[in-house]
Design brief:
- It is a single chain.
- The chain folds into three domains: 59 residues, no CATH class; 113 residues, no CATH class; 83 residues.
- It contains seven helices and 13 strands.
- The longest helix has 22 residues.
- It starts with 7 loop residues before the first strand and ends in a 20-residue tail after the last helix.
């Protein structure tokens, strides 16, 4: 299929299907009868046909057809931490102190459940050998930590897919193992020597930014939280540059850290005291946090206003 925007699609169906294109509206395709099966569409980026690629010459187009029958329906996730060649028990999360104490690595494994349109029963999810034929696209930060043996290079897949994060990488197989290095860093990394003029410039900008885009009591809890988090980040920057800590000494009112911290405290206390219109509520029946707006409309707070967190009720 080719759209008026010069975008092509490959269509695959698990059962025979007859399609009719509405030549009058030029925007709809319908089946001539009921269809009870699986339909898959493969998007072909604009310009592929004009680049001379054909079904006979393009490795990417051949791959899309060859792998069209297998598709994912779910996944099991497991993880393992390793240090100095020894591994911790799978699915056990070490403390933050443990990670900071020594370098190591973490392996996160996604084992996808698949179905096949060529199977006699394509409703049965399996982890069988045909799952090796699963073809998916990985985001750039995924591709960086996936074994190269599972990744198709440009020679074996000559079509380029892009997203807002960059180029997507084709990966074969129903098991993805992401190997992430763990570094010996604390919450704050060391600050190297900084020119005094540059430090003053940053602090001046922090002081200016602390009065911009402030939280509104009439806004939704999603936006309010992000604006409070922004003030917290400004306070953190100021604290690091001024070299002061509330645990060591009392701030003078003249410090940028003190000014931003008081600003942060003001809005954070208003939030925790439910002085904003879209305040948080605890559902004691289902045991979850909801926003007032979220209970009235599931689309409020960008869909985050219903049970997006857990809380323990205070005993009576």
């Amino acid at each position: 299929m080719k759209t008026p925007e010069n975008v092509n699609f490959f269509m695959f169906a698990s059962e025979p299907i007859n399609l009719v294109f509405d030549e009058l509206s030029m925007n709809s395709i319908s089946a001539t009868g009921p269809f009870n099966g699986v339909i898959r569409l493969a998007y072909i980026p604009r310009g592929v046909d004009s680049s001379g690629k054909t079904l006979q010459s393009s490795t990417g187009l051949k791959r899309l057809i060859y792998h069209s029958d297998v598709y994912p329906v779910g996944a099991d996730i497991s993880y393992e931490y390793q240090r100095s060649g020894s591994s911790l028990p799978s699915k056990s999360l070490p403390s933050q102190q443990y990670i900071n104490r020594a370098s190591g690595s973490a392996s996160v494994t996604f084992e996808f459940e698949t179905r096949s349109m060529l199977s006699d029963n394509n409703n049965a999810a399996t982890k069988s050998a045909n799952a090796r034929n699963l073809l998916m696209l990985a985001l750039p930060h995924h591709a960086e930590v996936i074994p190269k043996s599972d990744v198709l290079d440009n020679l074996n897949f000559d079509i380029n897919y892009e997203c807002i994060k960059g180029n997507l990488t084709p990966v074969i197989g129903s098991i993805w193992t992401l190997d992430e290095p763990l570094y010996d860093i604390q919450f704050d990394g060391p600050i190297k020597s900084m020119d005094g003029k540059l430090k003053d410039l940053i602090l001046k900008q922090v002081e200016n930014d602390m009065n911009q885009v402030l939280p509104s009591a009439e806004g939704n809890v999603y936006g309010y939280g992000k604006q409070v988090a922004r003030l917290a980040q400004l306070a953190h920057i100021a604290d690091r540059l001024e070299g002061k800590s509330t645990k060591d000494e009392t701030f003078s009112n003249s410090t940028i850290t003190s000014k931003v911290s008081m600003q942060l405290s003001k809005y954070l206390e208003a939030y925790l005291s439910s002085e904003i219109s879209d305040n948080l509520l605890f559902d004691k029946n289902l045991g979850g946090l909801c926003s007032k707006n979220g209970l009235l409309d599931k689309n409020e707070d960008f869909g985050n206003g219903r049970y997006n967190g857990k809380a323990t009720p205070i005993p009576k």
